[in-house]
Amino acid sequence: MVASNRVVVLIVEDEPLIRFNILDVLEDVGHVALEAANADEAMVVLQGRQDVDILFTDVNMAGSMDGIQLAKRVRAMRPNIGIIITSGMVGLDPRALPANAAFLSKPYMHDTLITTIDSLMT
């Protein structure tokens, strides 16, 4: 599996094993993977980097905001960033998502994640 374009993805996931697994999958296909354990860490990364193409966030996380609140804040700051929201606990209606956003229900296949990233970048 090889990515067509190098994409910078910020992974926001409070479960370390899941976060590291996603990081490995993305790096294996040639993407640049950044990581944050919660929304507060993600905001610090985003303030320091203007090259993030995709925000990949879990819904349920400890910290000052959950993944949906993070997605809304990031959308307001950077209208062109792609957003992938994921959860194994809640379902989101895709029609309720902002433009250039997608929802993946856990568990998801790695191929589905890569395809979703590619579709948000076109």
UniProtKB/TrEMBL annotation:
The keyword Magnesium does not apply. The modification 4-aspartylphosphate is found at D58. The keyword Phosphoprotein applies. GO terms for biological process: phosphorelay signal transduction system. InterPro entries: Bact_response_regulator (IPR050595), CheY-like_superfamily (IPR011006), Sig_transdc_resp-reg_receiver (IPR001789). PANTHER family: REGULATORY PROTEIN (PTHR44591:SF18), STRESS RESPONSE REGULATOR PROTEIN 1 (PTHR44591). This is CheY-like chemotaxis protein. It comes from Rhizobium lentis.
